[in-house]
Amino acid sequence: MAAGDPTPQALRAFHDDLSTAYGPQRWWPTQDADNPRFEILVGAVLTQHTAWTNVDIAIAALREAGPLTAEALLAHADLPVLIRRAGPHNVKARRLRALCQWFVDNGGFETLAAWPSAALRRELLALHGIGFETADVILLYAFERPAFVADAYAFRILERYGWWRGRRNYERLRQQVEHAGPTADAAFYDELHALIVAHAKQRCHKRAPDCGQCVLASRCACALKAAPDAATGG
Ligand code: SF4
């Protein structure tokens, strides 16, 4: 049974169990597989509180309007109209513009790729409308830095699993998982986040988790509390 902070071995087992169940996830989903990194920045902002299907439509509209570059987005006078399918479009247009301006001012990926992760994260968090989750998605998927995305899905599953108790605190859960996880293996966190999302959507539902079919059930505190005999196979 899981209890308290994860050990490196327990976190690896958690990841591997989910990987066995769902297979390689290979995130982040992008429309241009040849040049995905700037699209990831855009998607990370557009997906805030918005379903991915609507983000996909907004990114397609941006692509139709011109090249998907920071310079082109800054030049679109009608940016809010182009992204209107992705939620509060005026708010998100302002956030996108702030991110694009920072990106251009700092030399784009060519220069930013050399920045230490801590400096990148600090700068991202200082931008208008970029919170912890968006900053870590950008760090992880666009800059390929090891970072744990402690989103609502992660809290739901790790609370039930027994690795989080009490009031939710993004930074504490992120640090707890990164402390147990590999320090230089971005691919591990890339898959871990994608697997957590898959598990939350397919098995560990908000209401009525499907514990009977869950690959984590033999170590999950919530499942063991409901059926204690499962721990011993009795
Ligand atoms: S055993 Fe149930 S509560 Fe635990 S992770 Fe699996 S689906 Fe979620």
TrEMBL record:
<protein>
    <submittedName>
        <fullName>Endonuclease III domain-containing protein</fullName>
    </submittedName>
</protein>
<dbReference type="InterPro" id="IPR023170">
    <property type="entry name" value="HhH_base_excis_C"/>
</dbReference>
<keyword id="KW-0255">Endonuclease</keyword>
<keyword id="KW-0004">4Fe-4S</keyword>
<dbReference type="InterPro" id="IPR003265">
    <property type="entry name" value="HhH-GPD_domain"/>
</dbReference>
<dbReference type="Pfam" id="PF00730">
    <property type="entry name" value="HhH-GPD"/>
</dbReference>
<dbReference type="InterPro" id="IPR011257">
    <property type="entry name" value="DNA_glycosylase"/>
</dbReference>
<keyword id="KW-0408">Iron</keyword>
<keyword id="KW-0411">Iron-sulfur</keyword>
<feature type="domain" description="HhH-GPD">
    <location>
        <begin position="46"/>
        <end position="202"/>
    </location>
</feature>
<keyword id="KW-0540">Nuclease</keyword>
<keyword id="KW-0479">Metal-binding</keyword>
<keyword id="KW-0378">Hydrolase</keyword>
<dbReference type="GO" id="GO:0004519">
    <property type="term" value="F:endonuclease activity"/>
</dbReference>
